[in-house]
Automatic annotation (TrEMBL):
Gene3D superfamilies: 6.10.250.3150, Glucose Permease (Domain IIA)
Domain M23ase beta-sheet core: 352-446
The keyword Coiled coil is assigned to this record: yes
Name of the protein in question: M23ase beta-sheet core domain-containing protein
Organism taxonomic ancestry: unclassified sequences, metagenomes, ecological metagenomes
Disordered: annotated segments: 178-208, 265-291
Coiled-coil residues: 17-44
Keywords from the named record: Coiled coil, Signal
Organism of derivation: bioreactor metagenome
GO MF terms held by the record: metalloendopeptidase activity
Length: 451
């Protein structure tokens, strides 16, 4: 029982060590991903030339980069903590192994010394022959054989234990080196963070000097955003009304077909009665009408009435939440988040975004995030061309396109390019797609839907 508890303890220690190693590996992957985000943001910053209009956009990029840098440092701290736990665990394991080795060496030494004293085969023979009976002689022979086998096993185990200790020590040294390397990386990242925060402070000071101009720009942008939303809401209302009208016409058509079918049935009964010489009597109650099968049905009252095909598309879209591709080609980063936001550095800047703003490189295309149908292409000042794609009762909106590759009525597939994103030469060559997601008449945050 005692040995069982010892084995269980050792096994639990091994499991904890393995879990800790897996956690460190997971943190390493997270760090790599965060560094990729920083590299992507850095490239976009380099491509965004400094100008009066681009200052706020550059500051947003810089703020995002600083957040990513802080995330990297936080992950590094967790990695170092995990490695410290690994080192402590390995030290304990080495101590335990060395204790076991000493015990085995001590026991083995005693047995060797004992055998040296009884080294002659004559002593062994006398030990066997001095038994009281034959059965006892057999037991003594078995004992000598088992004792010899035990000694051999002890010698092998001592050798293996020594090798295991050396391997553990080698792993410990390697882990220590990894820790030192991570400490160096952390120091480098901290220096980069200090430089970025210094740059951010300078740009904030410059923007504060341009507060009046910036507020005027934001006011104009707000008016343009309201105009864009009005166009989207108008289009949604038109499509809902059109779908409801189609549903009404389908019901009326079905009712006419049912009435015509009933009339033909009455005439047929009358003809048969006349042919048989019987007096035809009109039935007081007509047979129960067949249920009217509506071609279009809305999920909610006042919502978009969908066909069966559109309903299936809508369900598929919903089931892909969190897995939709980003609506841009090439490297990208979100520079404007959904909803009402108070700028963290500029207290006089408060924005309300109906979607998200994704910055990418000049020349990038906007692409459909899912299969659907283009329902409208329109122009709004400040957002250039916009495209609305319907996915059942979901809609995606792609704004700020300089060129459009599709037209209303086109069927598009996932990742299909629908237009070229506008690059604003007066805004530091910023290439930003404004992307919105709606369900019926409700705006949704697109970020959690994207992969």
């Amino acid at each position: 029982m005692r040995y069982g508890w010892i084995a269980l303890f050792l096994l639990s220690g091994l499991v904890a060590f393995s879990q800790n190693s897996a956690r460190v590996k997971q943190l390493e992957n997270q760090r790599k991903k965060a560094l990729e985000e920083i590299e992507m943001t850095s490239q976009l910053l380099n491509e965004t030339k400094i100008s009066t209009r681009s200052s706020l956009n550059r500051l947003n990029l810089l703020s995002k980069q600083i957040l990513s840098r802080k995330k990297v440092i936080s992950i590094l701290n967790q990695e170092i903590g995990g490695i410290d736990s690994q080192i402590n665990g390995m030290r304990r394991e080495i101590g335990r192994l060395e204790g076991e080795l000493k015990t085995k060496q001590k026991n083995y030494g005693k047995s060797v010394r004992g055998m040296y004293k009884r080294r002659s085969s004559q002593d062994k023979l006398l030990f066997i022959l001095s038994a009281d009976n034959f059965a006892q002689s057999i037991r003594r022979m078995r004992y000598l054989k088992e004792y010899a086998d035990w000694q051999k096993r002890q010698a092998i185990e001592i050798s293996e234990k020594q090798k295991e200790i050396e391997l553990k020590r080698s792993t410990l040294e390697k882990t220590r080196s990894e820790k030192q390397a991570l400490l160096g990386v952390r120091e480098t990242e901290n220096k980069k963070l200090e430089n970025e925060e210094s740059t951010q402070k300078t740009e904030v000071q410059q923007l504060n000097k341009k507060q009046r101009d910036l507020q005027a720009q934001l006011k104009k942008k707000k008016q343009q955003a309201e105009a864009l939303n009005q166009q989207i809401e108008k289009q949604i209302a038109l499509e809902i009304a059109k779908a409801e009208e189609e549903a009404r016409l389908a019901r009326e058509k079905a009712e006419r077909e049912r009435a015509e079918k009933a009339r033909i049935a009455r005439e047929e009964r009358k003809r048969k009665a006349e042919a048989s010489g019987k007096k035809y009597v009109e039935e007081k109650e007509e047979p129960a009408p067949e249920p009217i099968r509506e071609e279009r049905v809305a999920d909610v009252k006042g919502g978009y009435a969908m066909t069966r095909e559109e309903k299936k598309l809508s369900d598929n879209f919903a089931n892909n939440k969190g897995r939709l591709p980003y609506p841009v080609t090439g490297r990208h980063t979100i520079v404007g988040t959904f909803g009402e936001q108070q700028h963290q550095d500029l207290k006089y800047v408060r924005t309300n975004n109906s979607g998200i703003d994704i910055q990418t490189s000049p020349g990038a295309d906007a692409r459909a995030v899912f299969n659907g149908e283009v329902t409208r292409v329109f122009v709004v000042p400040g957002y250039n061309n916009s495209v609305i794609i319907r996915h059942g009762n979901y809609l995606t909106v792609y704004s700020n396109l300089s060129q459009v590759y599709v037209k209303a009525g086109d069927r598009v597939s996932t990742r299909q390019s629908i237009g070229k994103i506008f690059t604003d030469s007066e805004d530091g060559n910023a290439t930003i797609l404004h992307f919105q997601l709606w369900k019926e008449k409700t705006k949704l945050n697109p970020a959690p839907w994207l992969d």
